[in-house]
Amino acid sequence: MQIRHATEADIPRMMEIYAYARRFMAAHGNPRQWGATSWPPEALIRSDVADGKSYLCVHEDHIVGVFFYNFGEDIEPTYREIRDGAWLDDSPYGVIHRIAGDGSVRGIGSACIDWAFQQCGHLRIDTHSDNQIMQKLLRKKGFAHCGTIYVVEDDDPRSAFEKVRQE
User: Fold this and answer.
1) How far is CA 161 from the centre of its chain?
2) How, if at all, do strands 54-59 and 122-128 pair?
3) Distance of alpha carbon 146 from alpha carbon 157, whole angstroms
4) Is 151 within 8 Å of 91 (Cβ atoms)?
C-alpha cells in the first residue's frame, strides 16, 4: 500500500470513503462518532487538502483509504486539556485524524498509523469511546490509553492514546 498527499481532484473519492466509513461505524456499534453530524464536512476536507495535511492510501492504483496527519508542537488544541490521565511526553508530536477505508482492503488503519509513526516517532490520536475497533487496533499497535479529551464538534468523550518511540 502506498501513501500519498491528497489533491483537490481526489476529494469526491474521499467523500465517498467517509460516507462508507459512517455506515460501517453505525453498523458496528459506533453510530455517534461521525454519523450524527455527517462528519467530516467537505469544507474541512478541502482545507486539509489545501494545507497539505490530507493523505491517501493507494492499493493497485485505487484510493482505498484516507487520513489527516500533522506534526509539530502543541498542534492539536483539543489535546491541551486531558482528563482522567496525562500525556506520556510533552515533546512535538504527530496527530492522526479521520482515518477511513472503503472496505475493499484490510489493514488500512494499520498502514496509516505505521506510516505516520515512521514520520515522527511520537503520535497522539483520539477516538470515540464507542469505537472499539479503533481502540483495539491502537492497543495492538502499542499505544497507551492516556485519558479523555473532548472535541468542539460534540459533547461525547474521546479516548486519547499516545505512542512514543523508545530510544
Assistant:
1) 11
2) unpaired
3) 13
4) no
Distance, in Å, from the CA atom of 72 to the CA atom of 49, rounded to the nearest integer, reads 18
Which of these, 42, 57, 59, lies nearest to 8 by C-alpha position? Answer: 42
- C-alpha to C-alpha distance for 34 and 156, rounded to whole angstroms: 11
Task: Name the 3-class secondary structure at 12.
Answer: helix
pTM score: 0.94
pLDDT per position as a tens digit, 17-50: 999 999 999 999 888 888 777 899 999 999 999 9
Across the beta sheet with 54-59, what order do the strands follow? Answer: 2-5, 54-59, 62-72, 93-101, 122-128, 157-164, 144-150
Grid cell digits, residue 129: 469511546
| Cell 486539556, residue located | 81
51-77 pLDDT, tens per residue?
A: 999 999 999 999 999 999 999 998 999
Lookup: cell for 153: 464538534
Distances in whole angstroms, Cα of residue 139 to Cα of each of 21, 78, 105, 163: 21, 21, 21, 10
For the chain, the average pLDDT equals 94
